[in-house]
Amino acid sequence: MSSNKHLLKKSSQNQFLLIFSIVALIATTAYTQETPSSVPVSGASTSVLNKPVWMTELSIGLKESYDDNLLGVSGDSMPKSYSWITTISPKIGMDFAPLIKGQSMLKVLSLNYEPDFATYSQASEESNTAHRILNKIKANSENISFILDNSFQYIDGSSIAPIYLAPDNVRSCYAHGLPRERRNQYQDRTKIDFQLDWDRFFVRPTGSLQLWDMLTEQQAISGYQNWVDRYDINGGVDLGRKTSSQLAIFLGYRYGRQYQDKVIKSDYTSTNDYQRTIIGVEGKLFNWLTLSLLGGPDFRGYVDNAPVSNKNQVNFYGESSLTGEISKHDTVVVKYKGSRWVSSTGQVPTFDTSLDLGYRHRFDTALIWNLNCQLKNADYTVGNLTTGSSAPSLRNDWLYALSTGLSHNINANIGVNISIAANLGRNEQDGIANANYRQFDEYLTSIGVFSKF
Length: 453
Known about the structure:
This protein is mainly beta. It has helices at about 1-35, 175-180, and strands spanning about 55-65, 85-95, 105-115, 115-120, 130-140, 145-155, 185-200, 200-215, 230-240, 245-260, 270-285, 290-300, 310-325, 330-340, 350-360, 365-380, 395-410, 415-425, 440-450. It has a 19-stranded antiparallel β-sheet that branches.
């Protein structure tokens, strides 16, 4: 009963926010249209709503979406569940650095709050509120610089995970990731860099954290999704040399730890310590091409109860990004990452690979087209759990994702967008029973309106 009351309360809150958003958008549009700008700009509409200098963003968005496969099932056994989704997304961004007078070292001291209030009309258990807090500190003075980026997220969602009935309990690992991101949890991602420069050389102490604190219940029920807490924390140093005013090469070392909690009624965990050496290049290769390329061997030691035959491994680690501004209208972004990771469902480690390609074309100041392609692979075959009903080490899952969308600014304060996305889960593990249940197709279409102040 208390769960129903909570859902009714959340639904009432979202309905109020929906009504408030519509009224705000209509009022903003009317005000913009009825009040001409005192300083017109040729070829563009000028906003009459002026933000204070410390406010970097004040906006609200309203989006209606349709998801035809909420749990990522094949449809051969469990039927596909679907829902219309109403999402309200207010945003406020602040940068306090301009308010601190008499100093020039602090460049950015920002704090953004970007929540999403999502209501699933046909699947109330998937409704959630994602509270996102982003903050950044950037400072530099002569030969010293410091950057801190933090992204904190609290998802106020259901604490009960879905149940995948057999034979769908052997679904793709990317399938249960869909509802997992809507459940009650904390996430945190932090990166810190501190750099000392002299002549053509630099030294850069660095550290990073990735944390998932799952607040969902664990239950000993067949097919129930028991998600575990995980984190990856590391620190180290880079030694670099600037080959030009815009490009540098560096050698780096990281010492880190990956933690994975135990799933209910399991003795296994893939918790491990690692040391990583890397070589990299970063900066601008050309005026239009910005890059960051790094990679190297990863020396890993697993705890005694890890489900791997070799407790001491050498793996490859690689991470890269390239941004090409090939014209004033066209931007291409390519990203790659390959690394050893721990599963959100406990026990077996994976080797995760992702390749992203993004393209943006700006037709004019008002109309933008985005195209994004993603290829992901989760290979669990390093594990030795090859027996039993699930045989978690006999798994090699792929995800092919494609999305495209248009965004149009009607005027300086209001705009509309439309998008469509496809997520295709595929199995590449040979010699397993019910392989077709590891495959799924999910399509998500959205249309929205946004207002910027």
